[in-house]
Predict the structure.
Amino acid sequence: MRIAMLARNPDLYSHKRIVEAAKERGHEIDVINTLQCFMEITSRRPTIHYNGRVIAAESYNAVIPRIGASVTFYGLAVLRQFEMMGVYPLNESVSIGRSRDKLRSMQLLARDGVGLPVTAFAHDPKQTASVLETAGGAPVVIKLLEGTQGVGVVLAETPSSAMSVIEAFRGAKVNILVQEFIKEAGGSDIRAFVIGGKVVAAIKRSGAKGEFRSNIHRGGRAEPVKITPEERATAVRAARSMGLNVCGVDMLRSEHGPVVMEVNSSPGLQGIEGATGIDVAGRIVDFIAENARAGRTRTRGKG
């Protein structure tokens, strides 16, 4: 099987592991810099041009999108071109787009009955007091819609600080979500790694001292954890809501059960492989080998 991986940095741990796993299983894999592609959009034979060569429908059997948040728009355009050519995508462009839009993903999860923290969103700064009340009052978590890896996430511990932060963001015309603060989570969350509708590995991530965010990129630590049947079912439902074959589902343990904070369509492998010893990269490649078919998609362009 010939696999293309859309990734800007081939030296990242996750990307190197996927390449290793593919080669160990006898597959050919090329890392393609997403931003160095350009597309020839035609109704009869759409192609992608990359480093002086033409990528056509027969060039690859599958594509693995590892699209950074900062290049989502262009990355999804390139991925859609692969889909138009009939190349099987590990995660589809529509599904990645859903997960990258924090507001839309929350609405879809709520529609499907997935547990969530109480979340409020408003445009008018005059609604700030009502938004805070809806989210349960201070302390609240304030999130930029475009943030990633814990960037753009603020804990406002008092009503006055929450009002100030919200009004400052709205004054700068920045869209934000306001969520209830799950105090009982104690600065820890659960990352469940879902592949093909099954949780294959799970870790508990704990924030650095004095840090309420548990992201490993921000100094958090990871350890293997046994998740409950309810947590497992919640992770699988969240992945299904987004339409993602592979994702990391981040949950908090609240007094009223697991609540989903985010569904990550390009989850890192270093933390979860290092903590659990599970060959997650290999399982991703195995899933592709079992499921890749020309023109095979689930959403078929539905938003």
Remarks:
- The longest helix spans residues 229-242.
- The chain has three domains: 2-91, 119-181, 184-264.
